[in-house]
Amino acid sequence: MARWMHEDTVTDRSRDAELSSMRSVLPNCVAPQITTEMGAGGGRPMKLIGILLSPYVRRVAVSLNILKLPFELDEVFVFGEPEVVRRYNPLVRIPAMALDDGSNLVESGAILDDIDHMVSAETRLTPSDGPLRRRVLQTVAIALGAAEKAQWAFYEGHVRPAEKVHTPWIEHNDKQVLGGFEHLDMVAARIDDGGWIAGTPGISQADVTAAVAYTFANLARPNLELAGRFPHLSRFAERCESLPAFLKAPLPSAAKLASLLSKPFVN
After folding, report:
1. Which of 204, 197, 178, 183 lies closest to 237, judged by CA?
2. Pick from 70, 221, 249, 224: which is nearest to 151 by CA?
3. pLDDT at res. 104
4. DSSP string covering the chain, please?
5. What is the pLDDT of residues 100-110, one digit of tens each?
6. Confidence grade of residue 55 (pLDDT, cut at 50, 70, 90)
7. How would you classify residue 130: left for phi > 0, otherwise alpha for psi between -120 and 50, otherwise beta?
């Protein structure tokens, strides 16, 4: 299944409540900023394929902004335009990235590793070696796992026909979401106001992915009331979301979100 979001059908029983909850989370979102400067290799800018509703796409976009690597965002919804995505990724999944040399990258982890090597070792968002690298990667793994489980819980209630929804599976995934964020909340509680979640001297991929994952899960699973459960992580994510690199890669506006969720997720 493609990364959030394939166009899963929002069932009639839940569409109004789901959109109402999502709109309350997204009162001030704006359209994404598209960069049109020269690319890293001096040619056309790199192109990121996908939508910023996807935490996988968004963490790449935020990382590119932090590293000051110019790119264009090609907002493609996978089920609506699968053949467009297929040009870049045979799995028809987002994100994909078209480099300025004509080659393509797929999967957010592989893309992030590649763009880290477009900058100096000191600038990379994932340290090259040592204990900090392990700490960053482990934090990323937990945050990304929580986002994935939030995605699966959402899918269960929106892709299947109502009579086939398996509530214990939703509850299982939600518990995993809470487990991941509980861990990250405890970590966030130990850092000062200007600190970073993996203990790095500057912002790292751990911070990007943790903030993006939390924001996404808070949107996809409003019933979990994450802000009340995890106040330290919530404050940390809010601090990250106020940074220019995040603001330049915002979640879709409420109107855009409603339009996206009104489309069929499965053809």
Report:
1. 197
2. 221
3. 96
4. --SS---PPPPHHHHHHHHHHHHHH-TT--PPPPP-S--TTSSSPEEEES-TTSHHHHHHHHHHHHTT--EEEE---TTTSHHHHHTT-TT--S-EEE-TTS-EEESHHHHHHHHHTTS-TTT-SS-SSHHHHHHHHHHHHHHHHHHHHHHHHHHHHHHS-GGG--HHHHHHHHHHHHHHHHHHHHHHHTS-TT--TT--SS--HHHHHHHHHHHHHHHH-GGG-HHHH-HHHHHHHHHHHTSHHHHTSPPPPHHHHHHHHTS-S--
5. 899 999 999 99
6. very high
7. left
Give the pLDDT confidence score for residue 197 in this predicted structure.
98
- pLDDT of 222 above 90: yes
Token pair, residue 208, equals 């990007």
Tens digits of residue pLDDT in 110-141: 999 999 999 999 999 999 999 999 999 999 99
Please state, in angstroms and rounded to a whole number, the distance separating the CA atoms of residues 211 and 219: 12
The answer on pLDDT for 20 being more than 90 is no
CATH assignment at residue 166: 1.20.1050.130
Nearest partner of 34 among 248, 260, 266, judged by Cα: 248
CB 80 within 8 A of CB 263: yes
Domain that holds residue 41: 1-267
Buried b (16+ CB within 10 A) or exposed e, 2-32: bbbbbbbbbeeeeeeebbebbeebbeebeeb
62/67 Cα distance (integer angstroms): 9
**Total number of domains in the chain:** 1
Q: Which two tokens stand for residue 255?
A: 């109107």
Average pLDDT over residues 161-185: 95
